[in-house]
């Protein structure tokens, strides 16, 4: 479903991704993990068509990625920037107007789950609640590919766990592929199907989470510690 | 189309502060001119100057509007560019809202000015008002749209540079490029062949208003209009239109292909 072939991304003289080959298939919740500056966000932006590879090719469902892939890719940025004059309801309605696959009913359901006030302006929300709005807007779409860059950063640790668990009920794993970058590996490892580890712009591991647990008899954090050593 | 309309509604909200600022600025200038004129006993002359400045300032409105709104989007390119819509649609939405805001302040300013002139100057008649309104509308909107598209073109160049170098050097490089392109463009226009193929379709416009004549007679302010017959060429208009369209689509191409989040 998502295929990166020999993808290299350079920013000036700095190489963010080096000859990356990666194939991700649909119906899975995949975690993309790595240290800061390892190339996680760049990978997501490249798949979303918001950055352009220096070399190589990226396809989503066989279609070469350009900016217009946005019609089949739902992207959540790590940045805390939205149109602050919008209320939560305005933001949902705006997103619905821009994407044909936006499911209003589902979005309101997620909004309620996130305990957000639809009438509240985004500029009056806490950082954590703005993060929740981003999740509502991203998961409100029934896009075949959902990319979430650090969706849990800024969320209160006390509710993070329940939000992570709740997310799974708003994802249609028959039809969707969810790719999440996160530092909160411990909190998401129970919902992940696969994990991709990235280091210095190269993929160093791509494994099935159950296999890691059963065959290696390791938790994901232990597995990560081992491969990053 | 409904996606574009919803986007345009968002643009109205995003650009609203520029509209309000312009309204306050124009109103402030007029009110200020009124009180200053009363104080120094030259109310008509000061008001006339203020109205002329306010109308002329509209030429710059779209550029300021686009500067504000595009700068806002620059902070959230991941939202603005994450859409299946083309860049042309995104930019046209901004241009459209800017023109609507500009039209509102322009109509208000022009109407107030026309009422004031009508009350204070006897040379004003229906013909003169029509002449002034028509000419200032065409001149101001034509100039504002041309400047706005030129701004978008160079903004997209600036944004492309800023992907690799810092904002200060991006600005310097863009400014140098602006001077070079402007110089090359004026050279091209002065080529005899270019002048020949663009100077066609003359339209004679008689008694077109080209200015005002002010003076004081017996301590009273006097004003008259200056008119002359001018020739406009459709070829020049088409030439400018083509250049504007090329700049617009070149800007779209750069934002689409060169700008990253």
Key features?
heterodimer; A: 229 residues; alpha/beta; Rossmann fold; 27% strand; B: 261 residues
Number of domains of chain B: 1
Question: What number is the mean pLDDT of chain B?
Answer: 89
First CA to last CA of chain B: what distance? 26 Å
- Structural class of chain B comes to mainly alpha
**Spatial arrangement of strands, main beta sheet of chain B:** 1-2
Label the CATH architecture of chain A.
Answer: 3-Layer(aba) Sandwich
- How many runs of DSSP E, i.e. beta strands of chain B? 2
CATH topology of chain A: Rossmann fold
Order of H and E elements of chain A: EEEHEEEHHHEHEHEEHH
Strand content of chain B: 5-15%
State the largest interface: A-B, 24 and 23 residues
The largest sheet of chain B, given as strand count, sense and whether it forms a barrel, is: 2 strands, antiparallel
Please give the order of strands in the largest beta sheet of chain A: 6-7-8-3-9-10
Multimeric status of the protein: heterodimer
How many whole angstroms does the radius of gyration of chain B measure? Answer: 22 Å
Query: Tally the helices of chain B: what do you get?
Result: 8
Described by the principal axes of the CA atoms, the overall outline of chain B is globular
Low-confidence stretches of chain A: none
Average pLDDT over all residues of chain A: 92
The fourth-level CATH homologous superfamily of chain A is P-loop containing nucleotide triphosphate hydrolases
How much of the sequence of chain A is in beta strands?
25-35%
Keywords (chain B): Membrane, Transmembrane, Transmembrane helix
Transmembrane segments (chain B): 12-36, 48-70, 91-117, 129-161, 168-194, 231-255
Domain ABC transporter (chain A): 2-225
Protein name (chain A): ABC transporter ATP-binding protein YhcG
